Amino acid sequence: MIPSVDPRTGQTAAELDAETTSADLERITAAAAAATRELAELSRSGRAEMLRSMGRSLERHRDDLVAIADRETGLGPVRLGGELTRTRWQLDLFADVLEDGGYLEATIDHAGDTPMGPRPDLRRMLTPLGPVAVFGASNFPFAFSVPGGDTASALAAGCPVVAKVHDAHPLTSVRSQEALAEGARAAGVESDVVSVIYGRRAAGDLVRHPSIRAVGFTGSLSVGRELFDVAGARPTPIPFYGELGALNPVMVCREAARSRGESIGQGLAASFTLGVGQFCTKPGVALIPASSDGDALRDALVGAVEQLPAGVMLSERTRNAFAGGSVALREHPGVQVLAEGGGGKERGWWGTPLLLRADARGLDGPVLDECFGPVLVLVEYGSDDDLLALLARFGPALTGTVHADDADRPVAARILRMLQDSVGRVVWNGYPTGVAVSWAMHHGGPYPATTNPLHTSVGATSIRRWLRPISFQDVPDALLPDELRDRPTGGQLPRRVDGRLLLAD
After folding, report:
1. Where in the numbering of this chain does the Aldehyde dehydrogenase domain appear (predicted)?
2. I want to staple 492 with a disulfide (CB 3.0 to 4.6 A). Which of 148, 222, 411, 504 is the partner?
């Protein structure tokens, strides 16, 4: 039995009798392999309509989905309603990506003479990998779970999805899959293009299964690394795209602290406690100047944190990990508690906001590791060179944030050069929590932020994870994929022909 638990009380509200057996997994993966063929036959326009129909189905079931997710996560109907809107938007975005067609990188080199001699007719594009396994996140039951970005981008690529139901919101996962299936059927799709499995053992077996051709994962470093190693140890290794979280440093330059330190302090308090600190982009450390301006920023942070209440955390495991990480930080040499928020209730799983200061001379151990939850560590620097040296102590991350004014530009330029080597997104005079779904977004970073820094898990280009290139040499036009034919029938798309990029040919 899989319990559906209310984190506000810690009580089981329902149970799912759904543990996935070996026989179940064989049936599900066989159905996913069969669905690959139907997705291919749909063409880009058919898959676009399927995605939009899935979005409409989520919308029809909005009230039920939000209510169930609220009961399982404690995130509240306002936050969850906005997340469901984002999730529908992701499905619509990938329908647009399909209709645009540029993601295929369609390229044609006609036969002809070249300085190296005769060249055959060569045509290249990206093609689907096949069935994909998706492991969603506890903190986003819609946008990064069964109906989320990994699923939307994989389906757009033409890859069926087998999703692992998350223990923190199992019923939400099941109802989301049912809504997606209803939307697919309304678009005329008969195959099981999205299926779900349950249980830790089935999760490992899914990654090992020969029908699975790639994995998308959002979660902890420990579990992600375990599954990453499983994917790499297969007789035929497969890509594992894991988003594992990070410390996400914030640098506040001197002039910025002087001119708007109080505002930055208040903004940092709101950012690191947003969603009870349960965002993968939560800032975990802030470097501020050791000066009266830095003191004012710190005081603003302290005042803001002391006014904040405890919040409900997503699961008992998340709460316990936060509690353990907080204790390790508190007990680390050179770490001082600056402020704490209000306490939680006796029942349920609560996290109290915590602001710490660490001695710049002793940055090691837990100070350099992510603590998932509402905690921020302040580190004070002396000179600009000290700031850069401190930044170098913190490893790769999803984001790096710089607060700087015009007078800070020389040191800010040096910070930006360092960040470009170590993060996936640089934030200027803002806060990293919140990841826009767009064509230009990159949500990733060098290991251990992710297992593959070449790709993003958010935005239009996340579709690239589920595709591989193939070239056709001297293949008759009638036998080519439509997008590579001399006159494609499925609509115009960007193509590079004989070295020239043609937006419509």
Report:
1. 2-445
2. 504
Instruction: Kindly name the residue from 72, 243, 255, 340 that is annotated as catalytic.
Output: 243
Per the domain annotation, does 263 fall within a domain?
Answer: yes
How far is 11 from 305, CA to CA, in rounded Å? 29
**Each residue's pLDDT tens digit, 317-336:** 999 999 999 999 999 999 99
Please state whether the peptide bond connecting residue 476 to the residue before it is cis, i.e. omega within 30 degrees of 0: no
Catalytic-labelled residue, pool 159, 253, 280, 371: 280
- Report whether 350 contacts 322 (CB < 8 A): no
Whether 178 is a known active-site residue: answer no
Cα–Cα nearest to 314, from 398, 243, 374, 242: 374
The number of domains in the chain is 2
Please check the confidence at residue 8 and state whether its pLDDT lies above 70: yes
Q: Which of 13-22, 297-306, 351-360 has the lowest mean pLDDT?
A: 13-22
Residue 398: the pLDDT is 97
Mean pLDDT of 247-260: 98
- Asked if residue 289 is part of any domain, the answer here is yes
Residue 127 confidence (pLDDT): 98
| CATH number reported for the structural domain that contains residue 169 in this entry | 3.40.605.10
Sign of CA dihedral 439, 440, 442, 443: negative
Domain residues for the domain of 269 are 249-428
Say yes or no: 286 and 373 in one domain. yes
> Do 264 and 399 belong together in one domain?
yes
* Residues 6+ away with beta carbon under 8 Å from 29: 131, 162, 206, 209, 211, 212
Same domain, 221 and 260: no
pLDDT of residue 505: 55
Whether 193 and 285 map to the same domain: the answer is: no
Rounded CA separation 120/473 (Å): 7
Same domain? For 70 and 192 the reply is yes
* Across 425-443, average pLDDT: 96
Q: Do 286 and 324 reside in the same domain of the chain?
A: yes
pLDDT at 346 over 80: no
- For residues 357, 361, 364, 368, the Cα torsion angle rounded to the nearest 10 degrees is 50
Residues 346 and 368 in one domain: yes
- In contact, 375 and 326? CB cutoff 8 Å: yes
- Within 10 angstroms of residue 200's Cβ, the number of other Cβ atoms is 10
pLDDT in tens, 173-205: 999 999 999 999 999 999 999 999 999 899 999
The pLDDT-based confidence of 140 (bands split at 50, 70, 90) is: very high
Q: Is residue 124 part of a domain?
A: yes
Residue 424 lies in a domain: yes
- For the chain, the first-to-last Cα distance in angstroms comes to 57
What pLDDT, in 10s, does the model give residues 47-66? 999 999 999 999 999 999 99
Residue 399: closest CA among 294, 243, 257: 243
